[in-house]
Structures are given as C-alpha cells and as structure tokens.
Amino acid sequence: MQSEGLLRYDRQIKVEGFGREGQLKLKQACVAVIGLGGLGCPSATYLAMSGIGRLKLVDKGRIDLSDLNRQFLYGPEDLGKPKARVAAERLGSLNPDVEVEALEIELDENSLPEVLDGVDVVLDGLDNWRTRFLVNEACVKAGVPFVHAGIRGFYGQMTTVIPGRGPCLRCILKATPPEEELVPVVGPTPGVLGSLQALEAIKILTDLGEPLVGRLLIFDGLRMKFEEIRVDRNPGCPVCGI
C-alpha cells in the first residue's frame, strides 16, 4: 500500500488492533450494498471512505424529490437519474482508490448469485420485506454475512446474519411484515443505522470486536435509546434450519 494511501487512512490505522493489517483486509474486500436509499447512502459512503477495495451498488430505482431529505449522495440536479449510477460516481470521486460497480438490476433468485459472486459482506439498504428475505436466503446459501437494517419514522432495527453462527432473518421474523408503499422516515434515522451497518461490516472484515449475531438492536430516536433483544436460531427455519 502506497504511503499516500496510508496517510488517508492514518487515523483508523492508529486504532488499537486495526493497524496496517486491518487496512489491507479492507483493501482486499468486496462489499455489496443493496439499496442506495436512506440506509445505503451513509453505509456506502463510510465504506468507500474507509478504503474498501470494491463496492457493488445494487439499485434499479431512480432519484425522486422525496428522497432528498435523507439520501445525501444526490441533489436536485440528479432527479430522474439512476441511483446506483449517481452513487457510484459520487463515491468514486470521494475515494478514487475504491473500485465501485453500479448494478441497475431487478433482484430475484436468478440475479442474486451474480450479485453475491466474490462478495465478502452484504448490507441491507432495502425498503421492502419480500426482497430482504430473498437476499437473506441467498446469503445463507452462499455463506456470505448479511447485515440487516430497517427503519421507520424515528425508529430502526439491525442484526447481523453470519451463516452457521446464529439465526438468519427468517428465524427472527417468522411471518413477513406487511409492506408499506411509502415508509415514513425522519431524515437522520437511516443515517444512524446506515453508519452502524458500515461499522459492522468493517468489524467483520477485520475480525475485530463482536458482531451483532443472535442480537436484534432496536433504536428509538424519540427517547434516544438503544435496546437489545436476544434471538435464537430456529432449528425448523426453512432457510437456515439444521
């Protein structure tokens, strides 16, 4: 790694236990951020700035005016443009060392194996449960860690699925929650959860700390409280059951 690259990441290299070895692990890693909305914008930004070697940005949507209260990678000049493409351009300009790939595709059972190919961690930036459960199942089958987050209003939740080490998303949510056409959200809420997702991915990739496996983290922005719920693997789970 060149001296200029080391200087860019100097503050995190100085973190105890991180060092040049941790930075090299990030440089060699590939993370897929699926959904480039309120969650995906902060998580992808922090990963790019931290020096992840490769980012796959997956979103077939286009930028709408109602996105701009929270999706800070976009501006009024981007209305109508593809989210993944614009996000890739912005992140590439923030850190030219990171390889950023924009995938404007429909996620289904056929496309997910291609998305997960070569990926070390997947981040959930989605806004619908049907696709979340598809990604959860694909990650379990492929053995790829999956960092889930969801938000609504002032509230958010997060957990990490590491196949074989703890419960998957279907273990935790046995019934599919009802879908909302438009999820109400206060702008900073996904910023909190998206930042935590990026931190969780960095921990997983550098083998530092304790991942959020078997724990569901609940964020209440109105009371400014975090709570933790222990969750167990379901032996009868149709996705990851033993």
List the topology elements.
Layout: H1 3-8, H2 10-13, H3 19-27, E1 30-34, H4 40-50, E2 54-58, H5 83-94, E3 99-103, H6 112-116, E4 121-124, H7 129-142, E5 146-152, E6 155-161, H8 169-172, H9 188-206, E7 215-220, E8 225-230
Parallel strand pairs: 1-2, 1-4, 2-3, 4-5
Antiparallel strand pairs: 5-6, 6-7, 7-8
Describe the structure.
35% of the residues lie in helices and 19% in strands. It has nine helices and eight strands. An eight-stranded mixed β-sheet has the order 3-2-1-4-5-6-7-8, sandwiched between helices. The radius of gyration is 17 Å and the shape is globular. The chain has 242 residues and is of the alpha/beta class. The model has no long low-confidence stretch (mean pLDDT 96). It has helices spanning 3-8, 10-13, 19-27, 40-50, 83-94, 112-116, 129-142, 169-172, 188-206; strands at residues 30-34, 54-58, 99-103, 121-124, 146-152, 155-161, 215-220, 225-230. The longest helix has 19 residues, at 188-206. The chain has one domain (3-230): Rossmann fold (3-Layer(aba) Sandwich). Helix 4 (40-50) runs parallel beside helix 5 (83-94).
Gyration radius, to the nearest Å?
Answer: 17 Å
- Write down the CATH class: Alpha Beta
What integer is the average pLDDT?
A: 96
Proportion of residues in β-strands? 15-25%
Biggest sheet: strands side by side, in what order? 3-2-1-4-5-6-7-8
Shape: globular
